[in-house]
# Entry
Amino acid sequence: MALRITITLLRHGLTEYNEQKRYLGWTDVPLNQKGYHLLQSTKENYSYLAPEVIISSDLMRCVDTAKTLFPNVHIKQSKSLREFDFGCWEGKTYEELKDDLLYKKWLENQTVVTPPNGEAYIQFQERVLEGWNKVVVYALEQQLKHIVILSHGGPIRFILSQCSSTNKGFWDWNIGYGQGYSLVTDGEQMRRGERWNLLQEAPLMENEAGFIHTIK
# Structure
């Protein structure tokens, strides 16, 4: 029987920059107290299925989220799973940038225009796809059944839009803080390069009758 593999993609918890609606890419901002509280509350009311290993972005908001949700699971860090690098726009808000001509052009076509000292969209795509492929190869080599990728909104949306069998674009995926989706496939499907099946949203909630429902 072919190995059945599940990869759960989870977004980090809330930070001060997120609350203030500031662009947050490679800047290493920690979770704020509200972020920790929300993760703990979600963990108490919903079910995060424990993985065999976590592959996390190396930025502290992801690593700390992983430690909070899965304190007893080994964490491997990957720079490839970082958020998009917004360059000189890191830490700034829309209101602070709205009169910048280059910023206006970037909003109109983010796949072509690059933030100053930031990352081109094609670089972001190649980096994240490389990180995803390394996780898949690792799962096959280690014969793992469940891996959690702890990352950011951008990489998770990109992976889902490229690898999920569900036909949805980048911005069609809603990724809440501490939330995400589980994808499932088997070894043979992976080797053939087929898209992954969308299994469920994460985390899960069990109701009084014992049925599992996805978080909304």
